[in-house]
Amino acid sequence: MLVYLDDVPVPVSGDSVSAALEAVGVAAQQRGRIVVEVLLNGRPAGADVLAGRIDAAGSEFRCRSADPAQVVADTLGDAAAELSGLISDQKLACEKLWAGGTGEAVDSLKDVLERWRLVQEALNQCLQATGLGLGEISIESGKTGTDLSALLARLLEQIRTELGAGRFVELADLLGVDLSNLAEQWRDLLMRLRRAVLDSSGSASS
Description:
Layout: E1 2-5, E2 8-9, H1 17-30, E3 34-40, E4 43-44, H2 47-50, E5 60-66, H3 68-98, H4 102-130, H5 145-165, H6 168-201
Helix pairs in contact: 3-4, 3-6, 5-6
């Protein structure tokens, strides 16, 4: 079995998938990096491979690593970009509600709520990776991540309440104004956190 990390051969004790992945993980950690891609015989390794449920004898593993801070920064940048799209889609759903297209607007709203969940999930994963807390980063207004998280929770609950009650005029206002304004503040928060992560790592990336 041949194992490489960033095109550098990695010695492995044994001929199992777990031995290969362990050796690659150790090699990456020694360089202050994390493994972000695993290819088995030129193809992305699936769940069966990563769980060690295949015979890896005679196989070739090629793995790629990355700077953990850059991975976090990229994730935050992607989440901020997602919020930019959400602002447009929220306003579009608002316009549909005002035009009486409640069915189509409700479908759009379900998508909006799911995307907000993914943004929150991405932020939580990044905070866990960096060891930072929500209260340690703030936007220009002085609101911290803790404040913005609480505001989002209350606003999303309001939206679900208005949706359940069929109060579509109120729902349109929440989507087109309140949630869109909050999305801009969240986007600012994510970009400030991204800069803080890069600054703390000494990365030159912007």
